[in-house]
């Protein structure tokens, strides 16, 4: 009888040699006359264990990892196809503590099977039997919010687009905003692309759109390829196209690839890019919901918001709403990265604290040194000081302290980090990425790099610290999008909480 | 070959890549980005001679197309020389020594090094892509190996 072995095809697994491991497993099995069926699944998100190879046994799926090329012969020697003991054996996959304590809704299918394994499309089927207003109502009742900087209630947005009087409307997924440290979009696009397609199809039904676009970053070539395959398969299966699941309702979905411009993470800059121009932010109003892509009403969400939609349609608004607490409903896939022992993607209800996440789930730093700084919310998020590590990770609780949760990306630094250099990098990143539309961002970021340099070299330090603050104030209030408007967050949080790294001690630190 | 030298629009595999891409993608809504990606896939870059052809076919000015090419770091005006190494410079990779890898790749000399801002491999920092293949939890020794292997295939 053939034994099924799962080797992830996610870029994170490939980056650790999953392809050569797969070839070695096939080769060893053949040499030993064993029948093995290899499935290239998505990632379970336990990325420090990649390649995490699972063997289907009578007792369920048994995990081994991280498996390197050199380990493969010994795994066969040990009899891993029967789930036998081996130094790399992790036990039943579902019992791995970091997986067991998750509440996987959006990522519930991710990593279970091949990304293009048939799925039941239950959410879409449910939606096809509902009048559009009822779908919008379900989304509103569920309390779903957009993730990231555009964290508005999805229900309001859907209603606005649905009620806009236009024969042509669009639904657009912005997967162009993969901030540093936030790779959930990539894992989902590679591991369960059908979920995004289904969510967008439901949204199209609800708002009355017949066409949609997914805008993916060019830095994710594997996600682009995965989504492309999924779109082709969905068209061939009659899920997309002129008659969704035989309903007679049409929806065409196209993939577009960005060009390494982070401004396109902002929705209107992404629209410019889709229309064939450089990624420059548009003035608002009009909001895209009234006049977006090609001047038509456009519903824009990020990947995670669309991917939550099938679940809430299938299981009902109440089910979704009752996960999580406060005003933030549902779950958030937290992404632990940087200098971290157990880095990966962990889908949890909102409300856990940073300390628990980084130390209990993440196991502290990979270097073994003390944690010095934790950046939450991507490159435009603040460095959260230790005094706030017990604050619940919830958008409202964070906003109350002037912090942002963003897409749930968390980057850990150990005590060797120089926070002045990270502040300088935040300014440098802004200077590289600025689209140039707003002077405060375009000029402020370049001046910001120079000002941090002068502070560090102690050139009239107190004056330049004041100038840095003034500069940040100008950027915050004078920029149309988050690139210029939020770069001050990491810069000022570094300055406020780690003044010693800027050479500020004693009197200076208090005055700064 | 200097960076400004004219890049031929045909390759041995592809007598006229620009025409093929324009025929395949020129009819799309908002065709410019898909066309530019197609041309870069075919020719390894978006040369200035292609910009003129694209502008004419899509009824745009050369300045408009040039502005879009320049607006996205992904598009390059001349082909990469030697293996293409994309090293992540974002915070997560910095926390694990990504900047040193960038310097090391640049110093190696025989490859084209492009900084990128996040490959989505943050949990296994530092990360880079060599000729489109991702590599994570990189060390200076591993990079040396990869670069010398890549050099052999030149």
Number of helices of chain B: 7
Shape of chain B: elongated
| Radius of gyration from the alpha-carbon trace of chain B, in angstroms | 17 Å
- What is the overall shape of chain A? globular
Quaternary state, please? heterodimer
CATH topology value of the largest domain in chain A? Rossmann fold
In total, the number of strands of chain B is 4
Average pLDDT over all residues of chain A: 94
What does this molecule look like?
- The complex is a heterodimer of chains A (512) and B (154).
- Chain A is α/β, with parallel strands linked by helices and 512 residues long.
- Chain A folds into four domains: 3-100, Glutaredoxin (3-Layer(aba) Sandwich); 122-321, 3-Layer(aba) Sandwich (Rossmann fold); 331-414, Ubiquitin-like (UB roll); 419-511, Up-down Bundle (de novo design (two linked rop proteins)), CATH 1.20.1440.230.
- Chain A is 40% helix and 14% strand.
- Chain A has helices spanning 11-14, 18-31, 72-78, 97-100, 122-128, 132-142, 154-163, 184-191, 193-207, 221-236, 267-274, 303-315, 317-321, 354-361, 395-400, 419-433, 439-456, 461-478, 482-486, 488-497, 507-511; strands at 3-6, 36-39, 53-57, 60-64, 89-92, 170-175, 211-216, 252-257, 298-302, 331-338, 344-349, 371-376, 383-384, 409-414.
- Chain A has a five-stranded mixed β-sheet with strand order 2-1-3-4-5, covered by helices on one side. Chain A has a five-stranded mixed β-sheet with strand order 11-10-14-12-13.
- In chain A, helix 8 (184-191) packs across helix 9.
- The N and C termini of chain A lie far apart (71 Å).
- Chain B is of the alpha+beta class and 154 residues long.
- Chain B has two domains: 1-79, Arc Repressor Mutant, subunit A (Orthogonal Bundle); 84-152, Glutaredoxin (3-Layer(aba) Sandwich).
- Chain B is built from seven helices and four strands.
- In chain B, strands 2-1-3-4 form a four-stranded mixed β-sheet, covered by helices on one side.
- In chain B, strand 3 and strand 4 form a beta hairpin.
- Chain B is elongated.
- The two termini of chain B are 16 Å apart.
- The model of chain B has no long low-confidence stretch (mean pLDDT 91).
- At the A-B interface, helix 1, helix 8, helix 10, strand 8 and strand 10 of A face helix 2, helix 4, helix 5 and strand 4 of B.
